[in-house]
Amino acid sequence: MSLFLGIDTSNYTTSTALYDTTTGEMKQQKRLLPVAKGSLGLRQSDAVFHHTRQLPELIEALTSEIKPDAIGVSVKPRLAEGSYMPCFLCGEGLARSLSAVTGASLFRTSHQTGHILAALYSAGRLDLTGQKFLAFHVSGGTTDCLVCSPDSENIIDISQAGTSLDLKAGQAVDRVGLMLDLEFPCGAALEKLAEKSIRKFKIKPVIRGNDCCLSGLENKCRKMKDDGEPYEDIAAFCLAYVYETVRAMTSAAIEKYGTMPVVFAGGVMSDRIIRLRLEKDFDAYFAKPEFSCDNAAGLAVYAKLKSGERKN
C-alpha cells in the first residue's frame, strides 16, 4: 500500500489530499467556501451546495489517475455522540462512491481527529500517537484543550480537558476582523495588521477551571474601536488576548494531567504571533500553516495508520 486519499468538507473549506508513502509526498488541493462580504460564515445548505460543486474539480486537480489503496474521510466534527453537521455528508458520499468503484478501503473519522493528525504529520511527530499528549484544536468552531491517548480503534482517543464556554477563538478573530473592515475569514489579514502595532498589553484572561470565556474579547475590541484607537492596536490586542487564554488553559491542563508534549492545531494556531509566544512557554509542536487550517492531509494520514502503516 502506498496511496492514501483524504477528504474533508468542513464549514470553511473543501479539501482533498493524496499521500504517497513511497515518495513521501503529500499533495493537497483545497478551496475556501465562498462567503459574501461582511458575512461571518455560511448556512449549512449553502456549504453543501458549494462542496458539491467544488469536490469534483479538486479531485481532478489532485491527480488524473487516482486509484488509492485506502481513503480517510471526516464524517462529523468530533468523535462524540450527537456530533453532526450536514456539510460532512458531501465528503462521506464521495468517499463511499470512490471506495465502491476502486475497491479502496474506507475509514471514517472526525474533522477534529484529522486536524490533530495533520499537525502531528507536519511537525514530524506521528510517533506521539503511541503516547499521551495534549492537543489544542483552536478554530472557528472550537477552542478545545484535549487529552489524547493511543487507541487501537480510532488511532487516538480524545477527551476534552477544557473548552470555551461562549465565543470560540476563531469566531472572535473573525468578528474583530470584520469590525476592522477585513474580509472573512480574517485570520491572516488580522495578523498582518497586528504586526504593525508596537503596543504591549497586560491581559488577564477569563479562566474558569480548565475552561475559558472569550465573549469579553469582542466587547473590549469594540470599545477600543469606539474610542478611536488604531486598528493595528485593536488587532494586536485581539491576538494577544487569544494567546494569553490558550497559555492559561495549557498551564491549567498540565497542572491537572502532568507534563506532556502539546500539539497545537486549527486555523487560529497558524497565526505566527501566537505561535512564537507559545513556543517559548511549552514543549510545543505546531503544524505549518497549510496543515493547520482546515485540510484533508490528516484524513490521508488516518487512512495510512488504519491500514497498518504505523511508521512515520
Mean pLDDT reading: 94
Q: Would you identify the CATH H-level superfamily of the largest domain? A: ATPase, nucleotide binding domain
Radius of gyration: 19 Å
Instruction: Please report the distance between the alpha carbons of the first and last residues.
Output: 14 Å
Helix- and strand-based class?
A: alpha/beta
Tell me what portion of residues adopts beta-strand conformation: 15-25%
The tally of helices reads: 10
Tell me the helix content: 40-55%
| Total beta strands | 12
Question: How many domains, as an integer?
Answer: 2
Lateral arrangement of strands in the main beta sheet = 3-2-1-4-5
Low-confidence stretches: none
CATH architecture of the largest domain: 2-Layer Sandwich
Q: What is the CATH fold-level name of the largest domain?
A: Nucleotidyltransferase, domain 5
Which CATH class of the largest domain applies here? Alpha Beta
Order of helices and strands: EEEHEHEHEEEHHEEHHEHEHH
Quaternary structure state of the chains depicted: single chain
